[in-house]
Input
Amino acid sequence: MKKSACIIILAILPFLTFAQQKLSKEEKKLLELVDKNYQETVALLEEVLNINSGSLNKEGVREVGRVFAREFEKIGFQTEWVEVPAEVNRAGHFVATRKGSKGKKLFLIGHLDTVFEKDMPFTPFTWLNDSTATGQGANDMKGGDVLVFASLKALHELGLLEDRSVTVYFMGDEESSGDNELSRRDFIERSKSHDIALGYETAQGFNSVTVARRGSSGWTLKTTGRQSHSSGVFGQYAGYGAIYEASRILNEFREALAEEKYLTFNPGQFIGGSDISYDSETGKGEALGKTNIVAREAFVTGDLRFLGEAQKEAARAKMREIVAKNLHQTDAEITFRDGIPSMTPRPENYELAAVLNQVSLDMGLGEVKPGDPGSRGAADIAYVADILPGLDGLGASGSGAHAPGETINMKQFPLLIKRNTLLLYRLTR
Output
């Protein structure tokens, strides 16, 4: 075991000693097993972090899936690779299952892909200090995937998964889905035979859990103007041009909607000029133009995040209304693209949060409260949120997700594994 990992475990053992008096004999054994296996857990984390698995790197995503297949088969799971239709143009998904007749049937959700594509600078797993490591997808969310496996391994080694039903579903295209409807069809269908969904996106420390999270969708704005000499801009003949029209619309979006709770709308790309092109698959765009030409074309693409379908549809209606008012000699159109739905709060989610809170209190880790939906983005658990009660944000903690230098909190990691292990144990009794 690395020296830093040893230091972490020794530091937390006294912290847990008193709290363990509230745990059952089997629960204490589970915590001991997590410690016993921790060196192998960190080795698995390092192995999967060192495989590039950007959403578009299909072979890399499959390779991470093969690593997890190897490990899950060792603990009695049946594994398979779910192919997606060719038009989705993604790798597919990893699934591991055990079937039984006792306890709640669990549907555990993660993803294998990251935002870091193969042509981006690579960051291998690296210890930064005794409590922090870095690597691509460290907290979003290969750390969560490894956490799931470590918990199930401990349960398996004590025979506590016998005659229990658990499905582990690690998506291959959460960060960039080629077609949400086609890609999530199998995921949604399998969820229907379960009782509880648990998502392992990044944890926000020990004291918060996700009972609701916003959905995301996309929008594309296209504006046109009358290409002419710039000396005539604003005039009767030339008008305002496509770039001014796009700018007007974006500013009115901000003025009309920016203060609405849980609603955000972000223009991620803006291209304008006399001639433009855009590749929706790669996100690359080009524009031709000169400062003395009134722009003929402009293109803006962005996302819209919301809590509940009613908020989404109301925002879209207002955006359409704003787009319909055009500056002189311009035209505009906006189209919307459905993405990930929102995970709306339901009473059963709060009941599950209460179970997690009791586990945390019994371990001496403090109170766990439902988090603010506005602090979380979209996630795959939302596709099944109307089918199953669930929690999310149960994975590894860290910082800098989606950015170079993404980290995982290795001081919290073993404790989060232990907390999750006891949660799964109590839910399946």
User: Anything to note?
Assistant: The radius of gyration is 24 Å.
